[in-house]
Predict the structure.
Amino acid sequence: MRMVDIQRSDIASADRIVRQAELAKILGVSSVTLWRWRQNNKFPAPIKLGSGRMIGWRMSSILQWIDEQEVLD
């Protein structure tokens, strides 16, 4: 897993909601890759924001997912 050079303290707040474009940048992948991972159940499901058309992820679930990937590698 290649993560852009961003320290956990820089993205930290566990309750923070991260939108797809920022998440792709943090993880160093494209939005299409995120979509593909979601379709293959290899990535945490997003939460719906507002009217349900916008989505985002809790930073805590992303950090947990990253930790799990490091264990698997």
